[in-house]
Amino acid sequence: MTECKSRQLHFWGLGRRKVTARFDGGHLTSDAGGLLLSEVDRRLGMLERLANCFIDHRDPRRVEHTVRDLIAQRVYALALGYEDLSDHDLLRADPLLALMAGKRDVTGGDRHRLRDRGRALASPSALGRLELSRPDEAASDRYRRIGADTKAMDSLLWDLFLEAYRKPPRRVVLDLDATDDPLHGRQEGRFFHGLYVHRG
After folding, report:
1. Long-range CB pairs of 56-61, under 8 A, 24+ apart, other chains included
2. Given CB 3.0 to 4.6 Å as the disulfide criterion, which of 12, 71, 74, 103 pairs with 98?
């Protein structure tokens, strides 16, 4: 018979939160490694800088999830392997993802609308509006009111690259080879790839 220990493991706290590993089967997660990723971002501030590349036309009095909150939720979910927006139907109630995204109330108990209580994070439709917004239409669009400044994003990507070096490289080579991705069917947008002699 297995002998179970009730000992707890204690980790460094996150802000005022205490992080404890227990073995009693409470709130379980297989995504605890994401805490390391969020710690890296806290030190580098990449998500905050990315959020600054968006222009938010929403009424601030009605905003429950900041642009940074939405981006953090989506980026961390992608990093953990949840690439579909529909995954957020369940993920929005995940306290670990809420902790990673920087939510103070990780259980969602303080949400404004009663139907959102117990879900600290944004809905798939809110994330979809962020992803599908068009910068030139965001100011006048009724629902997709957050526009990306793509030039600022390009500049951020370049800045992050340069910051990874103590001394900026003298020369940067961009290798733009085509990726071979063969199709098997009659998908819309397919084309004949002459180099690989198949449809892609």
Report:
1. 56/145, 56/146, 57/138, 57/139, 57/145, 57/146, 57/147, 58/145, 58/146
2. 103
Please state the pTM of the whole predicted model.
0.75
Tokens of 69: 């909150």
List % helix, strand, coil for the chain (3-state, nearest 5): 35, 10, 55
Which pair of structure tokens corresponds to residue 30?
């297989």
Residue 117 has a pLDDT of 93
200 token code pair: 């892609």
Per the model's pLDDT, the better-predicted residue between 86 and 192 turns out to be 86
Q: What is the DSSP letter of 178?
A: P
Residue range 176-193, pLDDT digits in tens: 876 777 777 777 877 777
Beta strand segments in the chain, E: 9-14, 17-21, 54-56, 146-148, 192-193, 198-199
Q: How many residues belong to the chain?
A: 200
Q: Which residue has the tokens 């009424």?
A: 59
Beta pairing partners, 55: 147
CB neighbours (10 Å) of residue 42?
Answer: 15
Predicted confidence at residue 21, as pLDDT, reads: 72
> Which residue, chain included where needed, has tokens 């390391």?
36
Report in angstroms the alpha-carbon separations of 187 from 26, 93, 94: 46, 36, 36
